[in-house]
Structure formats: structure tokens, C-alpha cells
Amino acid sequence: MVIQTVNPATGELVRKFEALSSQQVDEHIQRSADAFRVYRRSSYAERAALLHAAADILDSECDDLAKIATLEMGKTFEAAKVEVRKCASGCRWYADHGAEMLADEPWPAEGPSVYTRYEPLGPILAVMPWNFPFWQVIRFAAPALMAGNTVLLKHASNVPQVALAIEDVLRRAGFAEGVFSTLLISAAAVEGIIADRRVRGVTLTGSEEAGRSVGAAAGRHIKPSVLELGGADPFIVMPSADLERAISAAITSRTMNNGQSCVNAKRFIVHADVVEDFVRRFSERMGALRVGDPMDSETDIGPLATGDAVQTLHRQVTGTIAAGAQVHTGGALLEREGYFYPPTVLTNIPNGSPGHLEEFFGPVALVWEAADVDDAIRIANDSPLGLGGSAWTTDPVEKQRFVDEVETGMMYINDFTASIPSVPFGGTKDSGYGRELARFGAQTFTNPKTVWLAQ
User: Which pTM value belongs to this model?
Assistant: First the structure.
């Protein structure tokens, strides 16, 4: 795979990068292993100070860093700045709370002193996606570094400058050489790195196909892994909901990051009593969103990340329409340079169509009508994916049923799914396994060693 920066707003090739040779990869892994032997002996206070320094750089250079993300994958400049600031907050959160989450954990026993000690594992490979190119890395790296691990980053091949920028920020913050290393490599090189005995774990955020490959490789080599894969998140609206609030949230969630997020609301499941009103108002507001230059502060929707992404999304849309779905807005390719796709709303999604079976990664909303709460839960669970979900209702019985019965790793009531440092993040079913953030982020890539001290 070519490693290069292509501006998705214009299709212009900006810069190409040479992939590392196998010898260079070996040297990076060795530096990471060597750095780990020293870094693991640092104190939590020392690691926290480094993360605070990184946060200060992220904040002070926010605009410059955000421009790189906008250039490479097309998110709006305003959204990119929010992402960089979120990374700064994530670094500070783990700097402030990591030591507490990683402290020795005592256990009751008659006589001896017994506790669990969370020891770092070593170099951890992170295979990261392009859609939140700063945050996806930092939400893994900040807790992993706080735990005393070192990090090897294989970032998506279309965001190499973001990958290098993250390494540069951490080095200038004071992290020693080898503690965080960017590997400009193809996806084909990943399995060999997982197999390397010096590498002690792997985390991946990406497609189901990539997750199966990485998870299988980690299993073969008996190494811990975390997989955060695709999502087809249900967004359920019941008659008791505040419809205006739900529609506003639906617009925000569906179009966040130009519609390219695993936890975007994607399948809108609306009770029959309010579906007509919801679709009318939702479609009007989706159709009114401004598509354009991601550097323009007035733009609502920027380009998709690649030309292939546009073609894939349009194939899914046209296939769903051909199967019998109804178009309320959008649905046609835009005649302009760059990788843009219009905000689109489809209803009457047929079983067996792409809209029923596939994840849509772009600003396309798919709407189902539900007869009652049982039907809403059935539709929500009619997917192999189970990342997040949300439900909008004021009925306490409905709230509890959605929490208990919708098959997702995260269920939000009267709010939409988010990724914040203090709350665990992850899915079930084909959306992956393991958890990031909160204490899971700090403890996952550690050896929880039982210590038994007899008198």
C-alpha cells in the first residue's frame, strides 16, 4: 500500500513516503524494547509530568496540528481543533488519574499480605485508523505510556504526517527515543511485527476484516489484543422523546467527522407514532447542511477521506435504493472536485439490501419504522455489529428494556455515544472485544501479578 498524503478536498497528491525496510523495522522494535527496560522503572509522577508536557504542546500548537488532519483526511478544521484539544485533555486525565488506577490492589487473606501489581508488558503495537487520526492514537497511547509500556504505531497509510506529528510532540514533551515510535509500513508488515517476541501486545481500531487478521495473529502468538471494529449503531426514538432534541442529536451524531465514525448513529429506528414527523424534519435539516471546503468555518460536511470511500458509499446507497428504499434527500454524486458526498436520508430499508447488511461510512442516514418497543429492540439487534447505541424516551420501563436488551457494548439513554477518557469504550459481537479508556485503558496491557507475602 502506498503511504502518502492526498488532499481529499481536491484529490491532489501532496507528499509520498517510503515504507521502512525490514531492517529499519527491526531497528525500531529493538529501540522500543531497549527503551522499555529503562522507561518501566520510571515513576508514575515522572510519566505524568511527561503527559502533562505533551498536553501543553497539543494545546499550544492546536491549529497547526489540526491543519494536518484536515489536509490528510478531510475533517473540518473546526472538528480537527476539537480533536487535538481532546487529546490534550486525555493526556491530562491519565496523568492525573493513572497512578490511582495502576496502584497495587489488596485482597483479603488470612495471615499473608496479598495484592495485585499491574506491571507493564513491553512494546505494544497500535494499528490505528485515519478517521480520528490524533485521538485514536492518544486514547490508547496515553494510558499505555502511563502504565509503563512503550508504543509502536502503525498508522493508516493516508495520514503519515499526523503519525509523525504525534511522535514529534511526544519526543519534544520529553519521552525518550524509542518510547513512542512511528512505523511507516504497509498493512502486510503487521503480522510479522505481532510475531516478533519483543512485541508484547497489539491493539487495533479498524475494519472487521483487519480485526480478524490481527486477532488471529495475536492468538497464534499468545499475545493480548484489543479490537475496536465497525459499528452500525441504532438510534431509537420513542413517542415520549423530546423530538426536537432527538433530531438535533441525530444530525450531530450521524454527520460527526463527515459521517465517518464507528460510533456515528447509523440506523435510526423510529416509532410509528412519530416516524413521519421525524423523517420530514430530519431530512429537511440534513438536506440543508453545507458541504464544502473543510477549512471554511461555515462548512458542515467536508469530504470523505478517499475516492474509494465515495464510490463504496454510493454503491451502497444505489444498491439500497434499487432494492426498494425511498430517498428523502441526497443520494446522488456531487459534480465537483474532491471526495464529497451529500447528506442523504433513506427510509423503507429492504431486508437483504446493503442498508440492512453493511456499515455505511459517510453522511447517510438509514431509517426504520418500529411498531412498538419490542419491534425497536428486534431491529436494533438485527445486526452482526454491536458497538454503541442510543435510545430516546422518558418512559422508565422503556429505558430499562433498552439498557437490558439492546446488544451493544455501550448504551446511551437520551444522549448519543461518545468517547471520553473517564468512561469505558468498546463493543460486542462483530464490533470487537476488550475495552479502552477509563481504568481498562490503563490496565489492559499490563501483567496483573498476584503478590503473596507470608509472615
Answer: 0.97
